[in-house]
């Protein structure tokens, strides 16, 4: 079973991104569940969503405490939330990184085994006119892990948000830089 934790802010589509990951896995014949967690429902407040993916039915319906992968939709959250908490040894980090970011600038913890970086904010603003990063981060997640199919996710994204978002997903996939740290 693969466990994923997404960190974002209210209004960024963090919960919907988790749902789309699960939908893509189910379409491919697997199983998945997503569980959102948020406090005050206001735009800009920290939001966390949890995802489990597997080839067999999934019983746990709890938060993910030891994720295989962490997705950070808003890089400023790293100052307020320990996004690495519980990350399994060799786990992957999918991060919305500013242009020119380096591994050193990310201040990683030793458990990180791979990093997928993309300027999701810049891509979203250019493509959609607003900094809603969930679609771009889905593209980075797919490239960084290979756990779900790009075409399946693109179809779901287009169904939910239209062609511009599906194009953003593919552009972010192509723009994502993946680094294996060990």
How many structural units, i.e. domains? 1
Helical stretch count? 6
CATH homology-level superfamily = Pyruvate-ferredoxin oxidoreductase, PFOR, domain III
**Helical fraction:** 25-40%
CATH class, anyone? Alpha Beta
**CATH-assigned fold name:** Pyruvate-ferredoxin Oxidoreductase, domain 3
The largest beta-sheet arranges its strands as 2-3-1-4-5-6-7
Distance between the termini: 21 Å
What structural class is derived from the secondary structure elements? Answer: alpha/beta
Secondary-structure arrangement, i.e. CATH architecture? 3-Layer(aba) Sandwich
Ranges where pLDDT stays below 50 over 5 or more residues in a row are: none
Beta-strand content bin: 25-35%
User: What is the H/E string?
Assistant: EHEEEEHEHHHHE
The shape is globular
Main β-sheet description: 7 strands, mixed
Average pLDDT? 93
- Strand runs, count: 7
Radius of gyration: 15 Å
């Amino acid at each position: 079973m693969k466990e994923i934790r997404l960190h974002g802010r209210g209004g960024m589509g963090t919960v919907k991104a988790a749902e789309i990951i699960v939908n893509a896995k189910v379409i491919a014949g697997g199983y998945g569940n997503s569980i959102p967690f948020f406090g005050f429902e206001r735009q800009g407040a920290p939001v966390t969503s949890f995802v489990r993916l597997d080839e067999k039915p999934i019983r746990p319906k709890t938060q993910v405490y030891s994720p295989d992968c962490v997705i950070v939709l808003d890089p400023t959250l790293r100052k307020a939330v320990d996004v690495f908490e519980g990350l399994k040894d060799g786990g992957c980090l999918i991060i919305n990184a500013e242009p020119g970011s380096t591994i050193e600038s990310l201040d990683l913890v030793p458990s990180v085994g791979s990093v997928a970086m993309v300027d999701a904010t810049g891509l979203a603003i250019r493509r959609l006119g607003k900094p809603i990063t969930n679609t771009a981060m889905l593209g980075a997640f797919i490239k960084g892990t290979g756990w779900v199919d790009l075409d399946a996710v693109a179809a779901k994204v287009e169904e939910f948000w239209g062609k511009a978002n599906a194009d953003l997903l593919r552009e972010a996939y192509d723009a994502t830089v993946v680094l294996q740290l060990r």
